[in-house]
Amino acid sequence: MANNFVFQEEKTPKKFNLSTWASISTYVFKNWPYLIAIFISMVFTSFIDSSCFPLLSASIVSSIQQPHASNIIDLVINVTFIFGIKFNLDYIGLILFYVISILIRSLAIFINFYLSNLLVMHIVVDLRRDSFKKVQELSFSYYDKTPHGWLIARMGSDCSDIADMISNGFINLFWIFFDLIFILISMFSYNVALSFLVLAITPILIIIIPLFERIVLKLHRIARNSYSNFVRWLAECINGAKTIKILAIEGEIEKEADEITEDIRKKRRRAMTFNGFFVPIVSIASAITSGLIVLVGEYVLHLRSDVVGNIAIFTFFISCCSSIYTPITQFTDLFSEFMATQASVEKVLSLVNTKPAIVDTKEVIEKYGDIFNNKKENFEKMDGNICFKDVFFHYENGKDIITNFNLNIKKGETVAIVGETGSGKTTIVNLLCRFYEPTAGEILIDGEEYRNRSVGWIRSNIGYVQQNPFVFNTSYYNNLRYGNLNASDDAVKDVCKMIGIDDFINSQPQGYNTILNDSGNQLSTGQKQLLSFARALLRDPQIIILDEATSSIDTDTEYKIQKMIGTFLKGRTSIIIAHRLSTIVEADRIIVLDKGKIVEEGSHKQLIEKKGWYHHLYMNQFKELNIDEQIKTYEEQIEKKKIKL
Fold first, then answer.
1. Rounded to a whole number, what is the distance in angstroms from the first to the last CA of the chain?
2. pTM
3. Residue 56, SS3?
4. C-alpha dihedral, 368 to 370 to 372 to 377, nearest 10°
């Protein structure tokens, strides 16, 4: 199994795309007060590091052998500053100058790092907030084709990488820029000829660096894609943990984990090994430049003939060699990081800029609000009349699932939809809830095309109980209140009593305040369905949808629920999707689907007498029951109806 694992390489950028970074720069500039303070601190730090200290060191060497100085206290240093500015410092003044410079530099560095961390925090929060908001807007069709692991990677590691790159990357970029500017100004203001000598090897580096970076970038892309596949694989394994245990393939999955992590290690090691050659190349260039200054500098210098002066100049320009090549090295590394992170930027932007498939018109939003801000005061009361009119639907593969579908459901009517797997039962319900929209035809609610009303209006009037309901990581109270956020504690308890789960919840350690962890894994599927059922009833909806809602509930509990909710469903439109046909015999109407078309329609009695599709499904299901199940079912019916033998 491990040997069959296929790594899917994700698309990555082939060149630096400035427009991609420009489109995400709004996350930086919205925090402009931080940026201004960070830039000011960088100017001070770069000025002190690249100009003050090197020029002061050169001035000290130049003045160290003053013939008039009897001791170090009497030493007067002639400081030559940038742009030819000169002033004198005595011993005390030198100490004060160094202390003040160090204090200013330390304060600037503290401000820089502190505000940079704040900037990272704001950016990553904004990115994740916008990404998650987009996830809430996107339709079912997006989730059909997007792995959960992909979304987790985008809002997790990718958002963090982007925030780090935007803040630290851009800051370091400007820091490098300021360092180079101040170094060049200091060099050329001191000696133009030697400045050009220091820069002599730079053109060679400009040619070598892009070639080197192209190879390094390719290796980093390969390693990054391998990690992205690992995240996707990991999410798949976590979601399928129970299936892995049922199939007893833990050993095979462990082998896959070893193979994947080893692949990541090899690819990262290859990239890091090759990247390790770059720093020595720059160091060699810096050493060659220092040698040129020593060998050629004496012939270049004509302005200063004294030995001490030449030593001072040599000291300054040799220090400039490392000072100017270090930013070049940093810029190269930074450029590599920009390229590596650009893939994350494009992926996050592709999520943030994705257009939802289900979007209300501008006029509808103005009247009813959007999904985040519903204007419930403008919501019309729903009666529950439903009409499917010449509806067609297909997924992205283009194959029609629903074909020329027509169905009228009256207010208060209970309609059951049955059919073989893949006949389109759940698709009909998803279209009604507007999780998808018809590719052709219309769906009318109370005589109005449902796209003329908002998504919020439709879904706030629907109570949907799924076959595999989801339980949130919160208390029983909160899980139930998601059906109606304004419901009182008494209303929650009344619904639970009606469903028959009040005693069970009260038996928990903190009763209704007990926290359900890990998506309610401590509950059975049947208990989750009961919670979901109570949550839907608490919504007080006009339309009730039961999608295999009692499939995991025992026969006795199912009978009690059906008996209890019979009164509740009166006056409400209800649609029941059922595989267990015994649960729909009391439905007002049964619709039999085959390949997205209605092939039969009528009551249970009418369809049994007709001996067509429904009769075939019903009898086949009855035959599938073994004799023990038949006896058990019969005994339960006797007990319920209190029939005496």
1. 58
2. 0.67
3. helix
4. 0
**Three-state secondary structure call for residue 586:** coil
For residue 535, what are its two tokens?
């949550």
Q: Which of 120, 121, 111 is nearest to 38 (CA)?
A: 111
Cα distances (Å, whole numbers) of residue 385 to 29, 414, 587: 51, 12, 17
Expressed in percent and rounded to 5, the helix, strand and coil fractions of the chain are 65, 10, 25
Query: Residue 71 in 3-state DSSP?
Result: coil
Bridging pattern class, strands 462-465 and 597-602 = unpaired
Instruction: Name the CA dihedral angle for 288, 290, 291, 295, rounded to a multiple of 10 degrees.
Output: 140
Give the pair of three-digit tokens for residue 240.
Answer: 């399928």
Q: Contact at 8 Å (CB) between 514 and 475?
A: yes
How many Å apart are CA 165 and CA 124, to the nearest integer?
Answer: 11
Gap between the Cα atoms of 572 and 575, Å rounded = 10
Tens of pLDDT, residues 228-283: 677 778 777 877 776 777 677 777 888 888 888 888 888 878 777 776 666 676 66
pLDDT in tens, 591-622: 999 888 899 999 888 988 888 888 888 887 76
Separation of alpha carbons 269 and 380, rounded Å: 63
Q: Return the structure tokens found at 102.
A: 């160090």
φ, ψ (nearest 5 deg) of residue 355: -90, 125
**Strand 448-449 with 543-547, pairing:** unpaired
Candidates 57, 638, 123, 592; CA nearest to 344 is 123
Which structure tokens are listed for 438?
């018809």
Tokens linked to 265: 């290690």
Choose among 83, 293, 111: nearest CA to 190.
Answer: 83
CA distance 332 to 327: 8
Residue whose token pair is 């018809």: 438
Specify which residues 195 forms β-bridges with.
none
* 334 CB neighbour count, 10 Å cutoff: 19
Question: Quick one: tokens of 523?
Answer: 């509950």
C-alpha to C-alpha distances, 508 to 161, 503, 518, 522, 532, nearest whole angstrom: 43, 9, 16, 11, 18
DSSP 414-425: EEEEEESTTSSH
**Per-residue pLDDT tens over the stretch 288-327:** 776 666 666 656 555 444 444 456 666 677 777 766 767 7
**Residue 367: enclosing H or E segment and its boundaries?**
helix 362-368
198: left (phi over 0), alpha (psi -120 to 50) or beta: alpha
List beta partners, residue 538: none
**Number of neighbouring beta carbons within 10 Å of residue 625:** 13
- Alpha-carbon distance of 178 to 175, in angstroms, equals 5
Q: Rounded distance, CA 204 to CA 97, Å?
A: 39
State how far the Cα of 627 lies from the Cα of 645, in Å rounded to an integer.
19
CB 108 within 8 A of CB 45: yes
Distance of CA 130 to the CA centre of its chain: 9
Question: Residue 118 and residue 469: Cα distance in Å, rounded?
Answer: 40
409, exposed or middle or buried, with CB in 10 Å at 0-12, 13-18, 19+? buried
Give the sign of the dihedral formed by CA 472, CA 474, CA 475, CA 479. negative
